[in-house]
Amino acid sequence: MPRPKKIRTITTTPSVSGFKPYGRNRHARNNEAVFLFCEEYEALRLSDYEKYNQTQASILMRVSRPTFTRIYLSAREKIAKAFVEGKQIIIEGGKVEFDNDWYFCEDCNSSFSILENERICPLCKSTNIMN
What are the tens digits of pLDDT across the range 62-96? Predict the structure, then answer.
């Protein structure tokens, strides 16, 4: 029986829930989607967008460096498959926790972490938020 997966820490939720291909031949292939876990998104974000090296990124995600490498490579394989085969990418799921408190705006349906002591949505300035 394999060891249970360790919970991975992520600092930000994805800004979108996925991507869809477009163009003339987008219906030529099957309509299966590629599912990218939140920890895979976070590994890509830390390594490719924030430019952390793998050791630094693994510390931020609270996993070992080899585990980070496996997560990162899995994400790249999934994205390459989606690009080559013209498949939709859906970002969801995974065994993750947030490194700080996250809030949800009931007016604009966005999620965010509050940087200051104000309980105001940074997008729509609503005070109708919940933990």
Answer: 889 999 999 999 999 999 999 999 899 998 877 66
Domain containing 107 equals 101-131
* List of residues 6+ apart from 118 with CB closer than 8 A: none
DSSP 111: E
Residues 11 and 57 grouped into a single domain: yes
Assigned token pair, 98: 């947030």
Other CB atoms within a 10 A radius of the CB of residue 100 amount to 10
Tell me: do 75 and 113 sit in the same domain: no
The verdict on 95 and 106 lying in the same domain is: no
Do 66 and 117 belong together in one domain? no
In angstroms, the CA 56 to CA 65 distance is 9
Structural domains in the chain (count): 2
Kindly compute the dihedral angle of the four CA atoms of residues 44, 45, 49, 55, in this order, to the nearest 10 degrees.
-70
Task: Give whole-number Cα distances, 13 to 42, 81, 101, 105, 112, in Å.
Answer: 8, 23, 12, 14, 8
Q: Could you read off the pLDDT of 39-60 as tens digits, one per residue?
A: 899 999 999 999 999 999 988 8
